[in-house]
Amino acid sequence: MLAFKSEEHNQLQLVDRDEIDDEEELFEMIDKLTAHGINAGDVKKLQDAGIYTCNGLMMHTKKNLTGIKGLSEAKVDKICEAAEKIVNFGYITGSDALIKRKSVVRITTGSQALDELLGGGIETSSITEAFGEFRSGKTQLAHTLCVSTQLPINMKGGNGKVAYIDTEGTFRPDRIVPIATRFGMDAGAVLDNIIYARAYTYEHQYNLLLGLAAKMSEEPFRLLIVDSVIALFRVDFTGRGELADRQQKLAQMLSRLIKIAEEFNVAVYMTNQVIADPGGGVFISDPKKPAGGHVLAHAATIRLMFRKGKGEQRVCKHYVFQITGGGITDAKD
């Protein structure tokens, strides 16, 4: 397994994981099941299904696992029993949970004001959603995060690679170059540490997520971008007659994103579109709300609303409520 270390001029160089001292492994590789009596062939079947860690295995239902070709209910029971001996998915104390939270990294957005709004930056092991109309800055933030994620931890970066799933064709590698220059990084190295895929259907989008487990189990990724998460669902499902099916498929997609975030301690940044809100009220000049309904709203840890300001300025605020050291308080612009 690989990791990053910072070199001169803030450039990154891949190094062996063995060179990093006192690093606690965030997940257990699925190969360890063989030491607990699981056949290597069955482990290969799990990997072919996109399951590369014991942690990820425990995030699947037995119904899903028995759906994998060649795995019977008896085999699945034995596999799950072995995985439970390797990873603890039971109760832990609040103190242990606090220690576990120390592995969370906050990645700078490049804006001090936005970092302060987020409590330090985009957080790993969680989903941050940004919604707003076109040209409100959502994709520009995604491009900036592609670079800032690769900064060393002591420079408010994530010290890791980036995976970018593009559903609208908005990724521009040439935009990365000036951003990398701004942060004093080598643009070529930054681009090499971004893996990119263009999705054309909601099924393609989901399959790209399944394929990430293999890469993230072998290399140090710290950010997953989905821009945008809802676009293909709005194209592939039309009319009220398909709304229920769309929301169910969207929920499965979002569940996969949450599992990736927690399994590999990566930050998930997803953009969302807006739709007209007829119930917004007469006192709101241009009422809009995020697409995706309650299913998408419940999946996001943090929701950010972007809107255009004066000239090239953009305005961002927490949606609905604000979190402070004293808990939840009324929202402020």
UniProtKB/TrEMBL annotation:
One of its GO terms (biological process) is mitotic recombination. Pfam families: Rad51. Keywords: ATP-binding, Cell cycle, DNA-binding, Meiosis, Nucleotide-binding, Nucleus. Residues 103-274, 280-317 form the RecA family profile domain. SMART domains: AAA. The keyword RNA-binding does not apply. One of its GO terms (cellular component) is condensed nuclear chromosome. Signal peptide: none annotated. It is found in: Nucleus. GO terms for molecular function: ATP binding; ATP-dependent DNA damage sensor activity; DNA strand exchange activity; double-stranded DNA binding; single-stranded DNA binding. SUPFAM superfamilies: P-loop containing nucleoside triphosphate hydrolases, Rad51 N-terminal domain-like. NCBIfam families: PRK04301.1, recomb_DMC1. PANTHER family: MEIOTIC RECOMBINATION PROTEIN DMC1_LIM15 HOMOLOG (PTHR22942:SF30), RECA/RAD51/RADA DNA STRAND-PAIRING FAMILY MEMBER (PTHR22942). Belongs to the RecA family. DMC1 subfamily. This is Meiotic recombination protein DMC1 homolog.
